[in-house]
Design goal:
binds guanosine-5'-triphosphate, endosome, 7 helices, Small_GTP-bd, single chain, binds magnesium ion, 7 strands, metal ion binding, Rossmann fold, globular, alpha/beta, 214 residues, Rab4, nucleotide-binding
């Protein structure tokens, strides 16, 4: 199977206040290393990766948006048709946590009301500078029907897990019929793999990069 074959293609967004570590999270996920000297994103950056999730090969197309206010009108135009999002705050910066409500409203109104969002408390390694407890953030997540993880783009802790959990949740919703990939703006596309599997009815063994074994 060619490395570009996949069962599903999912469009993802990374959103949240400036300096929370969004670009570092994307870099850690794709390159498996910490991005040294990361500077503010201008507009949007893009990355993609093929993962194995729930026995499916899934290609993620990830739009890493700028958190700075001056880019808001540009970044908003990328929200449309996203299937999943990482909503990021910095556990050592309360302002970034306080801004979550506004980011959430934007995501649900501009992307899709059905967008699957995982709340990410990044910079977990900065325990001595923590300003937001795990408990209060998990309550916020529960109240707003978000998944939740604390991560460190520096150490890599939970970074892959964040993308996997979000993808897995989307696949489960596709299977249950709650999400319809055929809906315009769903942020989900079928790939070659799905078409081939439907026609051959044979289980396929994938050999994609980034086998995450979830
Ligand atoms: N200690 C620690 N520092 C981090 C972590 N992730 C990012 N940083 C630092 O935080 C700063 C901002 O990281 P970026 O990834 O550029 O932040 P961003 O959210 O993309 O910012 P914008 O593009 O302006 O929205 C950089 O100095 C990073 O080195 C982390 O997990 N731990
Ligand atoms: Mg950035």
């Amino acid at each position: 199977m060619a490395s570009e074959s996949y069962d599903f293609l999912l469009k993802f967004l990374i959103i949240g206040s400036a300096g929370t570590g969004k670009s570092c999270l994307l870099h850690q996920f794709i390159e498996n290393k910490f991005k040294q000297d990361s500077s503010h994103t201008i507009g949007v950056e893009f990355g993609s990766k093929v993962i194995n999730c729930s026995n499916k090969t899934v290609k993620l197309q990830i739009w890493d948006t700028a958190g700075q206010e001056r880019f808001r009108s540009v970044t908003k135009s990328y929200y449309r048709g996203a299937a999943g999002a990482l909503l990021v705050y910095d556990i050592s910066n309360r302002d970034s946590y306080n801004a979550l409500g506004a980011w959430l409203t934007d995501a649900r109104t501009l992307a899709s009301p059905q967008i699957v969002i995982i709340l990410i408390g990044n910079k977990k390694d900065l325990e001595s500078e923590r300003e937001v407890t795990f408990l209060e953030a998990s309550r916020f997540a529960q109240e707003n029907e978000l998944m939740f993880l604390e991560t460190s783009a520096l150490s890599g802790e939970n970074v892959e897990e964040a993308f996997l959990r979000c993808s897995k949740n989307i696949l489960t919703r596709i299977e249950s019929g709650e999400l319809n990939p055929d809906r315009v703006g769903s942020g989900i596309q079928y790939g070659d793999g799905t078409i081939r599997k439907l026609s051959s009815n044979k289980p396929e063994v994938s050999s994609s990069d980034g086998n995450c074994g979830c």
